[in-house]
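Supplementary Note 2. Why include the ligand at all?

Several targets in our set were suspected to adopt different conformations when bound, so apo predictions alone were not considered sufficient. For every target with a known small-molecule partner we therefore ran a joint prediction. The input for NAP is given below.
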Amino acid sequence: MRNVLITGASRGIGSECAKAFASLGDNVIINYCNSQAAAEKLCSELKAQGLSASCIKADVSDPKMVKAMFCEIEKDFGHLDVLVNNAGIAQTKLFTDITDEDWQRMIQTNLSSVFYCCRAALSPMIRRHSGRIINISSMWGQVGGSCEVHYSAAKAGVIGLTKALAKEEGLSGITVNCVAPGVIRTDMTSNLSEEDFCALAEETPTGTTGTPKDVANAVVFLAAPESGFITGQVISVSGGFVV
Ligand code: NAP
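The joint prediction is reproduced in token form.
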């Protein structure tokens, strides 16, 4: 049974990843920050199906909390096979309105968190000569999003981190890849109206927007033992919005 940590798994894409891994028979560790009730509900639902799941609270933008979370995981489960860096926040603002606090919060939550979690996960993975890291970026990290400059910069940073780390860890038996979702219906996009979704779907070659399951499928694929020859890649799950 693989031990799989998914950050920000209380809701949305992370929650769907937790369900997907658990249904494959993996032991899922559901990280949350604020949504304790949602994380515990998901955990109970999975356990009620006879699947293996537990919850762990940590603000992944805080290096001390990340360190404590990994210590607890080591104590409870010994090692981690798969790390999915999914936790993230979004904010829509004109570039000239972005404050120092907005910038720091965005970079800490969406980029530094990936650094903290990869750093904590890597040494044991190197010792075991085995591991899978999947980082959730965004299509805006690939092509840039207007009124989301800080978000786009953080997500582009995640892509750079992924590619460089993949090169460094290839000989250690660890793969590091990115999934870059397009428009996915979750709380993060709940500010969009039905008209907005229709307009975005029309701009998309598949004529649809995506679901958390679409993203989870790509994450599970990259984590599979058969995907060991894929590293340093960015898989776009955007219905062809980005090609
Ligand atoms: P969501 O529904 O808003 O969920 C965000 C998740 O991140 C929640 O579980 C939240 O946990 C967690 N989180 C936020 N800050 C955290 C922190 N400091 N520490 C720990 N967990 C934290 O968002 P989503 O749409 O599922 O997004 C998941 C990922 O996909 C994000 O990285 C996002 O940027 C990326 N993405 C989403 C879309 C989209 O269209 N939805 C597109 C491209 C990329 P709590 O509620 O417990 O605080």
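The chain has eight helices and seven strands. The chain has one domain: 3-237. Comparable summaries for the other entries are listed in the accompanying table.
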